[in-house]
Amino acid sequence: QPQGPEEARAFVSAFLKRSMPRKGDEAIQDVLTRKAVVLEHYSKTKTKPKRRRTKGFTARQRRELRLFEIEPEQRRYAIFLPLHELWKQYIRDLCHGLRPDTQPHVVQSKLLKADLHGAIVTVTKSKCPSYVGITGIILQEFKHVFKIITKEDKLKVVPKLNNVFSLEIDGFISYIYGSKFQLRASERSAKKFKLKGTIDL
Q: What Gene Ontology terms describe where this protein resides (cellular component) (predicted)?
């Protein structure tokens, strides 16, 4: 038989007294009048496993291991001619074909941000006369220097500072002012170069 409201209230009061013997009648009545009991629940916080970053070599370790050194038997101009051909195709694709009607400043802006590994460059001006006339394929570009292999199979380390380099592709000649070009190849792609400004060695 279903219980009436009075019987139900009496049952709940008796149950609460048994369950909460330390609380008085007023506290039990307060629980009843609120009609809602919020049960506290402590969720276990899941700790995310920390990802271990793979530690690479430091600059000092790379130098000690000579990771970027080109072996003497590999320092031959003929070996890197295919790299130069790939670089020319890369620049043609980058400049959409290098058509005769292409604006020079458009090509220049593309070259300033392009990867120069494989390009043939010539030192046209320098504060150090011994650098003038050096021509070869860029094998490595660092922040402050170019490593160039010449036709005589000699590896030349040419600083960017105080040197002007010329670069020719499909009849278009571009000049690189090394003093304004002291950036890593990865940094140049995001840098905004000024089209006009003071040019010095």
A: nucleolus; ribonuclease MRP complex; ribonuclease P complex
Nearest CA to 140 among 123, 115, 162? 115
The pLDDT of residue 197 is 47
- In this predicted structure, the answer to whether residue 42 has a pLDDT above a threshold of 60 is no
- Domains annotated on the chain, with CATH: 1-32 (no CATH), 72-190 (2.30.30.210)
Separation between Cα atoms, residue 65 and residue 183, nearest integer Å = 24
Q: Lowest mean pLDDT: which of 1-10, 109-118, 164-173?
A: 1-10
Assign 3-class secondary structure to the chain: CCCCHHHHHHHHHHHHHHHCCCCCHHHHHHHHHHCCCCCCCCCCCCCCCCCCCCCCCCHHHHHHHCCCCCCHHHCCHHHHHHHHHHHHHHHHHHCCCCCCCCCHHHHHHHHHHCCCCCCEEEEEEECCHHHCCCEEEEEEECCCEEEEECCCCCEEEEECCCEEEEEEECCEEEEEEHHHCCCCHHHHCCCCCCCCCCCCC
- Is 169 within 8 Å of 108 (Cβ atoms)? no
* Token couple for 96: 């959409």
pLDDT tens-digit series, residues 69-85: 888 888 999 999 999 99
